[in-house]
Each structure stands twice: as C-alpha cells, then as structure tokens.
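sry for the spam today, last one i promise. struct tokens for design, 219 residues
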C-alpha cells in the first residue's frame, strides 16, 4: 500500500470512529431525554389523577415541585452512572450537577427549611435494572436530618407536613403525595397509608446489589 492509499485508509478509519462516537453520544442524549420526558409525563398524570389535598397552598406546591426536580436529577444521574443509584453518603452533593440549585432541597414546612428531604439509603449503589418494581420504591422523601440525610422511614417528620401526608419521589422518577397512617392513639406513624410503598427494594430473581462503579463511589 503506497502513501496515498494509506492516508485514504486512515481517513476512512477516522471517519468511522467519529461516526461511532457521534452515534453513541446521540443514543446517550436520547436515553436521558427519554427518561426525563417519561418522568415528567408520569408526574403530570399523577397530579391530575392522584387525590391531591383540596386546599393546596404555595408551600405544598413548591415542596412537590422540588421533590420532582430531585427525582428527575436521580434519573439523570442513573443515565450517567451505568443505571446505578447515588451512594447514600453525599447523595445531595452528587446530584448538584443535575439540579438547578440547592434551593430544590427546600421545604418550608421542614424544621430546617433549606434542607427538607432525605434519600433512601437502601438504594445506595443499587442497579435500577435489578429492581423488580421501581415505581413502588421510595428514593426521595421528606426528612428531618439536614443536608445529605439518608436512611428510611425513621427520618420522616413526627407529623406529616402537608395536609396529613408527605411528598415522595420514586425510583422510576415519578412523584406522589401520599397520606400518612394515623395510629389509634392519635399520633402519626412513620409510614405512608398506602401499603404498596416499598423502602427496601425487591431485586429480580438472581440479581442483587453489586459493587458500584468508581464514578458512583463515595470519595
């Protein structure tokens, strides 16, 4: 092969590599956008069909909007990290690239309004593909332990913040207001009234938690 032929072959090879990179970037873009659109659509349907409290006021609306932003941020994080959820340590910091500002962590009804939400620690590093039904698994909820709070229902406030219920973001990206269970003595249980809500994810048969990729590990 003479010099001109070699240059032509190198050019063709480079073109092919460039085309492959463009296609891969395009697939990644539409993958993220598809998830965002799906989550937004699901959220709109929930707002129309789910029994939202009749006397809404700005704090409730803002809180629900912020949970939606955080749930979408988790979906975008998943797309960039092999479908693995953020580690429970520093989850708020890791979502900072996927939300508009720290203001989305705000709930005016929280003890510390600037940091009104918590993350379900049982999802730390878990793979979305391994979870049997992500639409039932809580990922973001209203908690009272400050920035980067992570745990389970024990972090819920002693009393529900919004008309006897709380706002939740789920592992599939949708959000819901769900009424809190009330105990016979008149106090509030630290769990939602809906019995389908799951805190510990159920993994598909033969699947389970695996080592998280380097990009998803705490530093």
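last one done:
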């Amino acid at each position: 092969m003479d010099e001109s032929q070699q240059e032509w072959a190198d050019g063709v090879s480079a073109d092919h590599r460039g085309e492959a990179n463009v296609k891969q970037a395009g697939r990644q873009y539409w993958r993220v956008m598809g998830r965002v659109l799906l989550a937004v659509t699901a959220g709109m349907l929930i707002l129309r069909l789910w029994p939202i409290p009749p006397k809404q006021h700005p704090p409730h609306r803002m809180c629900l909007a912020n949970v939606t932003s955080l749930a979408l941020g988790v979906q975008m994080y998943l797309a960039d990290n092999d479908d693995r959820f953020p580690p429970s340590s520093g989850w708020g910091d890791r979502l900072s690239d996927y939300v508009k500002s720290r203001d989305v962590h705000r709930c005016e009804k929280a003890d510390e309004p600037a940091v009104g939400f918590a993350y379900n620690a049982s999802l730390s590093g878990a793979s979305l593909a391994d979870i049997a039904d992500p639409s039932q698994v809580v990922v973001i909820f209203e908690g009272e332990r400050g920035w980067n709070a992570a745990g389970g229902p024990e972090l819920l406030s002693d009393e529900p913040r919004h008309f006897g219920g709380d706002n939740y973001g789920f592992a599939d990206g949708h959000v819901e207001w769900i009424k809190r269970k009330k105990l016979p003595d008149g106090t509030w249980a630290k769990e939602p009234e809906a019995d389908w809500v799951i805190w510990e994810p159920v993994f598909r048969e033969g699947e389970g938690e695996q080592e998280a990729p380097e990009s998803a590990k705490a530093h």
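Residues 93 and 148 are 7 Å apart (CA to CA). ok im logging off now
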